[in-house]
Write a structure and sequence with these properties.
CATH superfamily of the largest domain: Hypothetical protein af1432
Structural class: alpha+beta
Helix content: 55-70%
CATH architecture of the largest domain: Orthogonal Bundle
Oligomer: single chain
Largest sheet: 6 strands, antiparallel
Number of domains: 2
Order of helices and strands: HHHHHHHHHHHHHHHHHHHEEHEHEHEEH
Distance between the termini: 69 Å
Strand order of the largest sheet: 3-2-1-6-5-4
Strand content: 5-15%
Shape: elongated
Number of strands: 6
Length: 475
């Protein structure tokens, strides 16, 4: 536990921790001044500009009176609201810009949803402090958020374990972290001195405290919503909520649905529009679309389709099939057959001076066809694509065996492809270099598996033989 706290505080999240602590301390002080809050936010020019942008949004400033300074924002929209905005924006920037893996995005979306639900509930049972409840719910899963944002190789390992059918999630977390997410959250809350409401929400004595009850209900509603608005878990929570705030079940349900819609607006207002699609929609058509999208993100291997694609490629070696059919079979076999979520073929172009994307399939991969341009040889900054083509070997990046090559995954490549595991292999027609094949599971954040790497190598070899046969003159 202590090693994780030290790692997150010293190496990974010191800037975020400092802002969160300072903003929370201002709430605890009896006489915090406008200038003290302004000084905390003004330390970071980027944070200041984002707080002002949110403050000028219709959501917080419906009169649209121009706000150009932090002190003016505090006067117009209130001390607590500006503090809440500063903390929320810090959390988004501190985590999403670091490692936007799917698990982190889903959890952060759930945290925003929980925060809005909790603040609405608090409005029924508390005369003050709804902003404190919002922040407590936003930070309810702080330990897990910090892990998915900064866990590195251990996050990859846990993602791989959780992707296995029938796995006990709590046990997997304990084995890899040496502690639970809940205990990690409690330790961070204590380390960052985040105060009573956040602590109470995680303690057994929270049932009698209306603020922490609001936080707990908000968190549980945001989790149950992922199972569907008509799920048994949601039905039970609607009953609890109705009793807690003193309204009918029908009114409680309508309030929950309205809060979910508001959570989407809040996430967009805070500049986290990529999270909006992950907050369960209340529109019936959108519910169907989101369910389909969730299933698509969890693409599963189809062994029969994979075997058929391998057989088809084997036949295309002797039949000399056309290049389009060969590449279609390759991408279908890897994507739908082996269950690899994003597949890209880049080819040597412009007299072998450039790598250019030729084919791409998978969620969020289409922009590669226009955006992926990479110098074939770059002596001042060698990269992994030229390395694999030159060394004629398939690589599994992101595992210990390939750590020595991590520096070849350059910053421009990380920006274009994202962070985490991937497979990469050369594509050659006999001795002639054609291009490079790249695959990953970035949309869901799941770790790649050994069986997928074996399939990837086999597809690469067979495609190379097809291309070699195609390049030979007919006898």
């Amino acid at each position: 536990m202590q090693s994780w706290i030290d790692r997150l505080n010293q190496a990974e999240l010191p800037a975020l921790a400092a802002v969160v602590q300072d903003l929370h301390r201002l709430a605890q002080a009896d006489k915090s001044s406008v200038q003290q809050l302004a000084n905390v936010l003004l330390r970071d020019a980027s944070l200041t500009s984002k707080v002002l942008r949110v403050g000028n949004s219709v959501y917080y400033n419906p009169s649209q009176e121009s706000i150009r300074t932090i002190s003016r924002a505090i006067v117009l929209i209130g001390f607590d609201n500006v503090r809440l905005i500063g903390l929320s924006v810090s959390l988004i920037d501190g985590l999403l810009t670091r490692a936007p893996r799917e698990q982190l995005q889903e959890l952060l979306a759930r945290s925003f949803h929980a925060a809005v639900q909790a603040r609405t509930i608090a409005g029924y049972v508390l005369s003050q402090q709804p902003e404190e409840v919002f922040i407590a719910a936003l930070l309810y899963n702080l330990g897990e958020l910090a892990f998915w944002g900064c866990g590195g190789e251990q996050a990859d390992e846990l993602a791989s374990r959780l992707a296995q059918p029938g796995v006990d999630a709590d046990e997997a977390v304990r084995e890899i972290l040496g502690t639970s997410f809940r205990q990690l959250t409690q330790a961070l809350v204590k380390s960052w001195n985040l105060g009573e409401i956040v602590s109470l929400a995680h303690s057994g004595g929270s049932r009698l405290d209306p603020a922490s009850q609001s936080v707990n209900l908000g968190a549980r509603i945001s989790e149950a919503a992922l199972e569907g608005w008509d799920s048994p878990a949601m039905d039970a929570l609607i009953g609890q909520l109705a009793d807690f705030i003193g309204v009918s079940r029908e009114d409680a349900l309508q309030q929950v649905l309205a809060s979910a819609d508001e959570a989407v607006k809040v996430a967009a207002t805070f500049g986290a529009s990529k999270l909006c699609r992950l907050i369960p929609s209340t529109d019936p058509e959108q519910i169907r679309v989101q369910q389909e999208a969730r299933r698509a993100r969890l693409l599963q291997p189809d062994l029969l389709l994979m075997q058929q694609a391998l057989q088809d490629l084997g036949m295309l070696v002797s039949k000399r099939g056309d290049i389009g059919l060969i590449l279609d079979t390759l991408l279908k076999g890897l994507h739908q057959g082996a269950g690899l979520e994003r597949v890209m073929l880049v080819v040597l172009a412009d007299g072998h001076t450039l790598f250019r994307a030729k084919r791409a399939v998978g969620e969020g991969s289409q922009h590669w066809l226009s955006d992926f341009l990479l110098p074939a040889e770059q002596p001042e900054q060698p990269h992994i694509f030229s390395y694999v083509l030159r060394n004629k070997e398939a690589l599994w990046m992101g595992v210990p065996a390939s750590y020595s090559l991590n520096e070849l995954v350059t910053q421009p490549l990380r920006k274009l492809l994202g962070m985490g595991m991937f497979f990469i292999a050369p594509l050659r027609a006999g001795t002639r270099p054609i291009g490079v094949l790249y695959v990953d599971n970035r949309p869901s954040g799941r770790a790649l598996k050994h069986e997928q790497f074996v399939a990837f190598q086999r597809f690469t070899q067979l495609t190379g033989r097809c291309l070699e046969a195609l390049s030979k003159p007919r006898s």
